[in-house]
Amino acid sequence: MSTAEKKKSFPSPFELPTPEGAEGWEELYPYYCLVSPERQELEEGKFWFFDGMHNPEPLYPFDTIMTENWWVALSQMTNRVWAFPPAIGVDQRVINGYLYVAPNICDDPVKVAERQVYFTRRAGHYYENWDEIFDNWKVKAKDCIDRLKAIEFTPLPEYEKEEYVTGHRGLYSSHDLLCKYNRLIENMLEMGSYHFEMLNLGYGAYLTFREYCQSAFPGIADQTVTDMVSGIDIVLFRPDDELRRLAKLAVELGVDKVITDNTSPDKTVELLKKTKEGQQWVQSLEDSKDPWFWYSTGVGYCHADPVWMTDMRLPFTALRGYIEAVRRGEKVDRPLDEILEKRARVTAEYRELLPTEEDRESFDGLVNLARKVFPFVEDHNFYVEHWHHSIFWQKVRELGDLFVSSGFFADREDIFYLHRHEVSDALYDLLIGWATGTQPRGEVYWKPVVERRKAKRDALAKWAPPPALGTPPKSITEPLTIMLFGITQETVEEWLSVGQDSSNILKGVAASPGKVTGRARVITDPEQLYEIQKGEILICRITAPSWAPVFPMISAAVSDVGGMMAHTAIISREYGLPAVVGTGFASSTFKTGDLVEVDGNFGTVKRLEEAV
Predict the structure, then answer these.
(1) What values do phi and psi take at 246, rounded to 5?
(2) Which candidate among 86, 277, 310, 436 keeps its CA 20 to 30 Å from the CA of 37?
(3) Do residues 517 and 595 touch, judged by C-beta distance below 8 A?
(4) Is the Cβ–Cβ distance between 518 and 537 less than 8 Å?
(5) Collapsed DSSP state (helix, strand, coil) of residue 279
(6) Which stretches does DSSP call E strand in 464-566?
(7) 3-state DSSP call for residue 106?
(8) Which region among 4-8, 439-443, 544-548 has the lowest average model confidence (pLDDT)?
(9) What is residue 501's predicted lDDT score, i.e. its pLDDT?
(10) What is the mean pLDDT of the chain?
């Protein structure tokens, strides 16, 4: 590669040094997700961008089930099911432990035309029957969750049950345990397929509306387009709405002081149970918890992210803030009426600018379709990444307990240092030992492997992954890449010009309008959410839906990754906060305490004063 070419490219995946102490990190991951010297020309010819949205930290071996799940599920929907004309699928590689993805494109005009026929017919069927299909989707998703809940991992018995013998069952605990593990994995892959059944069609409808507006109204801002589809009442906001309801109830019942005076959720609940009014409030809390507290503080793709159901610090922190607002007589509900009023006004203004009735009919059809599909784009998150995935991680931990009791692991969390295929092997090893009475090799084999892998992953965590690798693309057409990740030709050019040693100004996607100056609060770990102060500007790699309770406290939001349909963008618009997403480097450029100006109208973030 010439010097001139290098200036126009990102680093090669093969040029990156291995972090000190992480030598041999490749053993943590399957061969098929690593870059391969045998395909070096192919690997370097692709545009790889860091997926800090779903996996901001080095992947745990078992957690790769999430990434590999969507690697197939998303790509098959784009390529083999819907046959999006210009987009094929999204490829993946794990590089120094971090997930990089690359959109594949179809640039053969003949093939594009062939795919257009399939897409028009198949997508048209879904768009025409969207509401009915979405209702059925919820039934399928809930059934998948119920079947996941029913899976239980229990210790193997000393002797089989008498009824297995007298009932001539012929199948015993070894078979049952293998079947449970297989069902666990199959259940995850099943939900992955449901995850992407309608998602790219949702992004595609919005992308089509956006492109229409850009053509009909040259120079229209992305925020103006989103204003016309904002103001949705979706399931994903329900957990935060439950906290607001509980805050109002606490004040009504006169138990609010107990909640605001205690920082420990467990202690708070214990104290509340001592009074009749407190018991009433606790019962209301319990009624809300399932399903609304199956809410990850991350995006659900990593087992290590705390979940409200088992770690109530975040919801109780939000509760205290809402209670104080209620005491002051403030309205704690989302400004939905204002957003809907703006939506109607902006839509009418732009509709009137169209020259013909035919144009207005096209506009009406596209904006109505974008509004129709939008609830799925957000609501699927709760069913899939939060409700389902949080329970999935709990079930894996239960299996980890079984391995601990059998002497394979020292801690239930050790299971996450094995890939799912290795867990299958370890499970059979355990069954051999149980059946024969011989010590299984796993008792002496896995503990040193786990310790070695822990050290390697810890070393990988100290590495700062660059935002992109490989060859910049000629075009980006894959809907998810554009709408969710915010990766466009402009993004690529910005990253090429900025580099790791960024200046005091970063440019990203203008995701929610407004201009604010304030002190930065840089969040790189959900544990830091409890440090946020009123009026600060949230700067992070990406937000999670469960962070919604902190949005009433902040004055603006900035993220490294994300597009117009990323959660940071959507929730900022719903709360009326300025936001800039897809900056690439914000969380590493700025630090907590910096005086920062966020311009959500033009997509810039500027440091005005460095923290002392």
Answers:
(1) -65, -35
(2) 86
(3) yes
(4) yes
(5) helix
(6) 468-470, 505-507, 509-512, 515-523, 537-540, 556-559
(7) coil
(8) 4-8
(9) 46
(10) 92
Q: What token pair was written down for 179?
A: 């079947």
In Å, how far from its chain's centre is CA 563?
13
Residue type, 162: E
Split at pLDDT 50, 70, 90, the class of 442 is very high
CB 234 within 8 A of CB 273: no
Asked whether the beta carbons of 85 and 119 are under 8 A apart, the reply is yes
Average pLDDT over residues 36-54: 93
Strand partners, 509: 581
DSSP 90: E
Provide the token pair at 561. Answer: 């990754």
Structure tokens at 14: 């093969």
On the question of pLDDT at 53 being above 60, the answer is yes
Q: Which residues of 519-541 are buried (b: 16+ CB within 10 A; e: fewer)?
A: bbbbbeebeebeebeeebbbbbb
User: In this structure, are residues 523 and 539 in contact, taking their beta carbons and an 8 Å threshold?
Assistant: yes
C-beta contacts of 248-255 below 8 A and 24+ residues apart: 248/322, 248/326, 248/332, 249/281, 249/284, 250/281, 250/319, 250/323, 251/323, 251/326, 251/327, 253/277, 253/278, 253/280, 253/281, 255/281
Torsion sign (Cα): 516, 519, 522, 526: negative
Report whether pLDDT(339) > 80: yes
Q: Contact at 8 Å (CB) between 374 and 127? A: no
Let me know: does 584 contact 494? Beta carbons within 8 Å. yes
Token digits of residue 121? 């017919």
Look up residue 237 and give its two tokens: 């906001």
- Neighbouring CB atoms inside 10 A of 173's CB total 18
pLDDT tens per residue, range 522-571: 998 877 888 899 999 999 988 877 787 788 889 999 998 888 878 888 88
Q: Is the pLDDT of residue 322 over 60?
A: yes
Which of 508, 579, 487, 486 is closest to 538 using CA atoms?
579
- Is the separation of the CB atoms in 318 and 293 below 8 Å? no
Q: Cα(147)–Cα(183) distance, rounded to whole angstroms?
A: 9
Residues 69/117, Cβ–Cβ less than 8 Å: no
Within 170-297, strands assigned E span none
Kindly report which listed range (184-198, 237-251, 464-478) carries the lowest average pLDDT score. 464-478
Using CA atoms, how far apart are residues 200 and 478, in angstroms rounded to an integer?
9
Contact 239, 314 (CB under 8 A): no
pLDDT, average across residues 482-490: 81
With beta carbons less than 8 A apart as the criterion, state whether 118 and 82 touch.
yes
CB atoms within 10 A of CB 585: 21
Cis peptide before 472 (omega within 30 of 0): no
Which two structure tokens, joined as six digits, stand for 432? 């051999």
Q: Which helix (H) or strand (E) holds 73?
A: helix 64-76
Token pair of 67, please? 């990434």
pLDDT at position 9: 82
- Beta-bridged to residue 596, according to DSSP, are 518, 607
Put residue 495 in one of left, alpha, beta given phi > 0 → left and psi -120 to 50 → alpha: alpha
pLDDT beyond 50 at 384: yes
- pLDDT at position 222 is 81
Rounded to an integer, what distance in angstroms lies between the CA atom of residue 14 and that of residue 245?
53
Could you give all domains of the chain from N- to C-terminal order, each with its CATH number?
A: 1-217+363-480 (no CATH), 481-609 (3.50.30.10)
